[in-house]
Amino acid sequence: MSQLKPKISNQLNIEVINDACDKNYQAVMLKYYQLQFGWFHNAYNSFKDIDKYIILAHLVNKTLSTYNKHFYNLTFDQFYSNKSVEIEKISISEVVRELNITKETARRKLNEMTRDGIIVRNKKKITIEQNAFTFQKPIVSIKNFSNFLSTATEQLALGNSKKSFSAQYFEEKIKENYTHYWNDFLNFQIGLVLKFKQLFKNYENAMVFCICILNQAYNMKNSKQQITGESSDKITDNYVNTITQFTLENSKGLNPTTISELTGMPRASVIRKLNDLSKEQFIIRNEQNLYTTSSAKKGSSGFNKLSKFFISNQPYIRTVIKDFLNYTII
């Protein structure tokens, strides 16, 4: 009887992923911004408190890690049919260290979730109650991530042909192997949003910035701008320059009221966040009193920080693409 063996030699390497993404850079980045804004939007509107949401996501991810450690795989439906999910022992100091928050913040958020019946705590033992899934169930994030992966395959060379895979294909694969695949996604996503927090000072600032640059990506979608370069870093640099200048020249930014409607954040809070981002020169207000991300054309120090941030994150983003494509199509 023949034994099926994994085709290790067929695994996609990072050079193949870089080539596919570089050839379709503008479309891939649009889907990436949709993924990130959608995640922040759900995080904020679950509790009006992104820190609390990330703590809950971290606790869920701890459970998924435990399942993987014991080779225990559940589908999406199986996992969310549980009345409660028990987490291995976890301390506040561990939450503080891994999420880079203060002990006081971690304790306060955990107490609030305990009070609201989202989790049950017994010393270091934590149980996630079923009503937590109302906030954490990642229906939209799976769709957005699947769209992102599908777009990344549009220029993917497999053998002598170019083959793409639909978003539905990836969504089905993720849900079939949910506890394994979503553990890897949350490792990626939580690590990434911590980087956002480090640059933008808090998650709400990051969300407001994300909607501004997503708007600019939509503005540019149907333009005739071509993003080229001799290397991945140069393509990213050219893209960041082009997307900011395109929007600046066409005056298609957002006003505080629109940002408030799109994010779910009160208008007064949006104005404070816009002021924070403006002081750091991450965004600018144009002659029509609309906000866009800062531009190299204005000689902004914030623009230079953003360029470095996007370039430094590309290997991280493309590694998760590589890993998921190797899980699902090889």
How does the major sheet shape up? 3 strands, antiparallel
**What is the mean predicted local confidence, pLDDT?**
89
- Note poorly predicted spans: 1-6
Query: Per DSSP, what share of the residues sits in E-state strands of 2 or more residues?
Result: 5-15%
Q: What is the gyration radius calculated from CA atoms? A: 21 Å
Tally of helical runs: 15
DSSP E strands, number = 7
Structural class: mainly alpha
Helical percent range?
Answer: 55-70%
Distance between the termini: 23 Å
Descriptive account of the structure:
- The longest helix has 28 residues, at 301-328.
- This protein has one domain (12-43, 61-73, 136-328).
- The protein is mainly alpha-helical and 330 residues long.
- Mean pLDDT is 89; it is low at 1-6.
- A hairpin with a 2-residue loop joins strand 4 and strand 5 (161-162).
- The two termini are 23 Å apart.
- The chain is built from 15 helices and seven strands.
- The strands form three sheets. A three-stranded antiparallel β-sheet has the order 1-3-2.
Quick structural gist:
The protein is mainly alpha-helical and 330 residues long. It has helices spanning 14-23, 25-47, 50-69, 76-80, 92-99, 103-115, 133-136, 139-152, 167-176, 178-200, 203-221, 232-250, 256-263, 267-279, 301-328, and strands at residues 84-87, 119-122, 125-129, 157-158, 161-162, 283-285, 291-293.
